[in-house]
Amino acid sequence: MDRYYDLLKNNIIEFDKLMLDKYYLLGLNETDAILLIKLNGLLNRGEQSLSLSSIAPYMSISEKECSERVIKLVQNGFMALEMSNVNSKETFNLDETYRKLSLLLTNEENKTNNNEINELYKQTVSLLEKEFKKILSPIEKEIVNKWFYEYKYSFSDIDEAILEALKYKNRGVQYIDRLLFKKYFNKDNNEVESDIKNLFEKVYGKK
Asked: Most buried pick, 50, 149, 194, 198, via CB within 10 A?
């Protein structure tokens, strides 16, 4: 979420378009969305003082209604108001709106990733059943499931292990599982050994 938050706050991700696309998912209506876009425009111009008189003429609502909507946006956690220590003027920020949008983007990204993993899992089961000329047992499917969801093996490594198993007869899912475990177990051990070696050299130094 922090990654998207920073991108939004620094206007690298286009706030206006994202707000117009996602406002209804935040429980906002069109008028509130436009008001937040206008307020974000002030921030982008370096204007942190809340000046509704500079916004209202470009809205279809009055300045009074703008004020009422700002109060509701504050109450609903979309913006914050505070008094400036410099000039005692009321300033605002939209940090909470950025966080809400960031959470939406993160959830959508996770959903996309899960859909991709689901598809890769189905493809792998289908490939194994085709090559082994049999329906995988529930236990075998559970093993394949763990490759993707629990152990998080890369698809390229899984594919490589399957190709290795197909070189031999009577080598099934359990054999592929052992190949993957050996590959990742050795990788983890090598990384640990490397970390220990680096720590040793930092502590004692090279003579």
From this structure: 50
What confidence score (pLDDT) does residue 143 get?
A: 95
> What φ, ψ does residue 91 adopt, rounded to 5°?
-115, 165
Q: What one-character-per-residue DSSP string does 175-188 give?
A: HHHHHHHHHHHHHH
For residue 152, report the phi and psi dihedrals to the nearest 5 degrees: 55, 45
Three-state SS sequence of 2-32: HHHHHHHHCCCCCHHHHHHHHHHHHCCCHHH
Q: Where are the alpha helices (DSSP H) in the chain?
A: 2-9, 15-22, 30-44, 63-75, 95-132, 138-149, 155-165, 173-204
Do the beta carbons of residue 15 and residue 95 sit within 8 Å? no
Identify whether the C-beta of residue 179 lies closer than 8 Å to the C-beta of residue 165: yes
Residue percentage of the chain with pLDDT more than 70: 87
CA distance to 63, 68, 139, per residue, from 117 (Å): 50, 46, 19
pTM confidence score = 0.66
3-state secondary structure of 46: coil
**Which pLDDT score, from 0 to 100, does residue 39 have?**
94
Per-residue pLDDT of 147-158, as tens digits, reads 998 888 999 999
